[in-house]
Amino acid sequence: MRLRVVVDRIEDNRLAVLEIEGVAGDFVWPVEFLPPETHEGSILNFTIEADPEAEEAQRRKIRKLREELLKRNKE
Predict the structure, then answer these.
(1) Which of 6, 7, 35, 57 has the smallest number of Cβ neighbours within 10 A?
(2) Contact present, 2 and 49 (Cβ < 8 Å)
(3) What is the pLDDT of residues 5-49, one digit of tens each?
(4) Where are the domains of the chain?
(5) In sequence order, what are the residues at sequence separation of 6 or more whose Cβ sits closer than 8 angstroms to the Cβ of residue 68?
(6) Is the dihedral of CA 5, 42, 46, 27 positive or negative?
(7) What is the 3-state secondary structure (H, E, C) of the chain?
(8) The pLDDT value given to residue 19
């Protein structure tokens, strides 16, 4: 999914108030995670995509932790 975003304003050089095209309301995002040349009025493209490999790794991590906790409780 690709989102077109307009930087409405930057507050305290820390937070950017973004308007997402087609979405009601504002979205606040840390300036440090935006391209360095970003300024009020900048148009940005955000891309959101699934990461199945990372999701599976997270599941394995949680499964392992759960198993360790259950084993600890049995002892």
Answers:
(1) 35
(2) no
(3) 999 999 999 999 999 999 999 999 999 999 999 999 999 999 999
(4) 2-74
(5) none
(6) negative
(7) CEEEEEEEEEECCCEEEEEECCCCCEEEEEHHHCCCCCCCCCEEEEECCCCHHHHHHHHHHHHHHHHHHHHHHHC
(8) 97
Is 74 a residue whose pLDDT tops 90?
no
Query: What is the rounded distance in angstroms from the CA atom of residue 46 to the CA atom of residue 67?
Result: 38
Query: How much is the pTM?
Result: 0.70
Pairing state between β 43-47 and 2-11 = antiparallel
Instruction: Determine the Cα–Cα distance for residues 26 and 9; give it in Å rounded to an integer.
Output: 11
